[in-house]
């Protein structure tokens, strides 16, 4: 797969009219989609949450979490990246945002796209991260699956990567990233459902 160029990714995100969702009593959160290069190949980091966490234990996720008081989404994404992976990036590494995704468990998640360049050293927090995976852009460039369930009018999104299926919100966010950055297509995420096991 051809390399993506920082200025072109930033330009695509800057031209993209990302959707902000009102909180309506939900908690604000942010996740980091961090573009890194390893051995000449570009990709993003995905984590497997430790099985002892209170919420969404063992699920695949992007580094992220809820906003602290006084934070915006960018500040929170950068802080969470540092807390979870030991990687410290600054505001100058921010390329833009994707659509907010409202979860069944009561969060409004803002995806923040970052550019790290050559993969920095990581130190995953063992209290939060069971596994850190480099997902190459070639692996990410796959078509999503959409499955209808009786509990919802919206289709469940499934992203077939990492020898498993990534569901929303992670699957939805990465699908939109793939569509916009790798394919140049505007795709929305509000219509993508989570599987029932993730509703709590």
List the keywords:
metal-binding; CoAse; coenzyme A diphosphatase activity; 200 residues; Nucleoside Triphosphate Pyrophosphohydrolase; alpha+beta; single chain; magnesium
Describe what this molecule looks like in 3D.
The chain has helices at residues 6-15, 73-85, 137-140, 170-182; strands at residues 27-38, 41-49, 60-61, 64-66, 94-97, 101-102, 107-118, 129-136, 145-147, 156-161, 164-167. The radius of gyration is 16 Å and the shape is globular. It contains four helices and eleven strands, in the order αββββαββββαβββα. Strands 1, 2, 3, 4, 5, 6, 7 and 8 form an eight-stranded mixed β-sheet that branches. A three-stranded antiparallel β-sheet has the order 9-10-11, with helices on one face. The model has no long low-confidence stretch (mean pLDDT 94). It has 200 residues and is of the alpha+beta class. The protein has one domain (6-198): Nucleoside Triphosphate Pyrophosphohydrolase (Alpha-Beta Complex), CATH 3.90.79.
Write the layout of secondary structure elements.
Elements lengths: L5 H10 L11 E12 L2 E9 L10 E2 L2 E3 L6 H13 L8 E4 L3 E2 L4 E12 L10 E8 H4 L4 E3 L8 E6 L2 E4 L2 H13 L18
CATH topology: Nucleoside Triphosphate Pyrophosphohydrolase
CATH arch. level architecture: Alpha-Beta Complex
Tell the overall outline: globular
Count of spatially separate domains? 1
Uncertain residue ranges: none
CATH homologous superfamily?
Answer: Nucleoside Triphosphate Pyrophosphohydrolase
SSE pattern: HEEEEHEEEEHEEEH
Counting copies of identical and different chains, the oligomeric state is single chain
Mean pLDDT: 94
Radius of gyration: 16 Å
Structural class: alpha+beta
Count of individual beta strands: 11
Give a quick account of the main beta sheet: strands, pairing sense, barrel closure: 8 strands, mixed
**CATH class, please?**
Alpha Beta
Portion in strands: 25-35%
Family: Belongs to the Nudix hydrolase family.
Domain Nudix hydrolase: 26-160
Cofactor: Mg(2+); Mn(2+)
Keywords: Hydrolase, Magnesium, Manganese, Metal-binding
């Amino acid at each position: 797969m051809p390399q993506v160029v920082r200025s072109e990714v930033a330009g695509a995100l800057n031209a993209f009219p990302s959707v902000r969702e009102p909180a309506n009593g939900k908690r604000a959160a942010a996740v980091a989609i961090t573009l890194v290069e390893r051995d000449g190949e570009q990709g993003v980091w995905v984590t497997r949450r430790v099985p002892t966490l209170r919420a969404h234990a063992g699920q695949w996720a992007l580094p992220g979490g809820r906003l602290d008081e006084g934070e915006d989404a960018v500040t929170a994404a950068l802080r969470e990246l540092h807390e979870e992976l030991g990687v410290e990036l600054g505001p100058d590494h921010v390329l833009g945002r994707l659509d907010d995704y409202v979860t069944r468990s009561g969060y409004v998640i803002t995806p923040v796209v970052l550019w790290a360049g050559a993969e920095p050293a990581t130190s995953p927090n063992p209290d939060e991260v069971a596994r850190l995976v480099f997902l190459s852009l070639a692996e990410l460039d796959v078509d999503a699956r959409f499955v209808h369930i009786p509990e919802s009018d919206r289709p469940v999104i499934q992203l077939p990567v990492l020898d498993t299926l990534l569901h929303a919100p992670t699957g939805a966010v990465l699908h939109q990233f793939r569509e916009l950055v790798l394919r140049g297509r505007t795709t929305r995420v509000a219509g993508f459902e989570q599987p029932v096991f993730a509703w709590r």
